[in-house]
């Protein structure tokens, strides 16, 4: 008897994991199950590549959305200044490409040319949507960073 209840519960959970969310993120007519945001950060007055600006390693970048105090994800820049913020299926419900952005809080100790306070923010641009057997993954890249006071 216990085995049949366990098997039923496992079956229900398995079916639920394959069903699409009715109110989830939809891009280009496709339900999105995960998303990634890629970008580069440099040690320059605005965080963008200017001349031979060195890459900024070890900075925390956050994916935030206007009107929400919740960060949907964060990442650390690698030695080349690159980062990828990954967002799982439940957090895609809170994601809106029109209001979400990448944020870097200032100051950052390893870059002395940044302003002493505020943040750097960058908009998001859809690059592609990869369809897999299990879910669709949307990949975004950042636009240019700008200085912001929050």
TrEMBL record:
Alphabetized UniProt keyword annotations: Signal
Signal sequence residues: 1-24
Source organism, top-level taxon: Eukaryota
Name assigned to this protein: Phylloplanin
């Amino acid at each position: 008897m216990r085995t049949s209840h366990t098997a039923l519960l496992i079956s229900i959970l398995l079916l639920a994991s394959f069903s699409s969310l009715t109110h989830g993120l939809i891009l280009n007519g496709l339900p999105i199950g995960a998303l990634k945001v890629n970008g580069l950060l440099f040690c320059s007055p605005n965080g963008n590549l200017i001349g031979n600006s060195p890459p900024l390693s070890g900075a925390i970048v956050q994916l935030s959305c206007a009107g929400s105090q919740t960060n949907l994800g964060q990442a650390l820049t690698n030695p080349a200044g690159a980062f990828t913020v990954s967002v799982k299926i439940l957090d895609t419900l809170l994601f809106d490409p029109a209001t979400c952005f990448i944020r870097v809080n200032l100051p950052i100790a390893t870059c002395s040319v940044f302003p002493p306070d505020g943040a750097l923010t960058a908009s998001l641009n859809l690059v592609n949507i990869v369809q897999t057997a299990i879910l669709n993954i949307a990949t975004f890249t950042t636009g240019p960073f700008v200085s912001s006071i929050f």
